[in-house]
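Dear Dr. H.,

I hope your travels went smoothly. While you were away I took the liberty of generating a structure for the chain from your last submission, since the lab meeting agenda had it listed for discussion. I wanted you to have the full record in hand beforehand rather than looking at slides cold. The sequence, exactly as received, is reproduced here:
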Amino acid sequence: MQAPIFFQGVAVAAPLIVAIGAQNVFVLRQGLLRQHAPAIVIFCSAMDAVLIAAGVGGLGVVLGAAPTLRLAMALGGAGFLAWYGLGAARRAANPAALDANGGQAAASLRAALGKAAAFTLLNPHVYLDTVLLVGSIGAALPRADQPIFVAGAASASVLWFTGLGFGARVLAPWLSRPRVWRGIEALVALMMFGLSAKLLLGAIALWKGWAA
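The corresponding predicted structure, in token form, is as follows:
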């Protein structure tokens, strides 16, 4: 394996993956609740690997030339994040429903994976960062080096999501206090509303750009 190319992939992808976003918040919450964390970690890592490989393979060029698709993703993502934020706000307002040790009714694996898919695929920043940015850098490399670059970038995702999903359990004793868990749910709600507003403003700016 060509180590410089592998670690180039790690270095390019890591800052983008680690940046706080809706997907990271969801993985952290599932890890804290100990609800389907292994499956969520595997799914999110696998989706990142697929998107990175697709970007290196040329999907970034297609998305860059499809502003209508970016607008649709922004609007869909804004609506989904607002909906999830409302759910977090309701949980924060209902102390009886809060328990960081898994006392909350666990969603089914299918429902949890569905939410993970929505956080991944309805977020335009996933495409801008993972497909367009990381993909364009990898696509510029010689074809023989591209799989090594993809492996490095994907490994950064695996390490991050594994640490996020399983490392959260270390905090469980402290988070078992209802007041602390309420604060976490309130913070999640605020973040979801903020990200939703950001996507909506981006969609409006894109639309104005067309109208100008």
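Two observations you may find useful: The longest helix spans residues 178-211. The chain has a mean pLDDT of 80.

With kind regards,
E. W.
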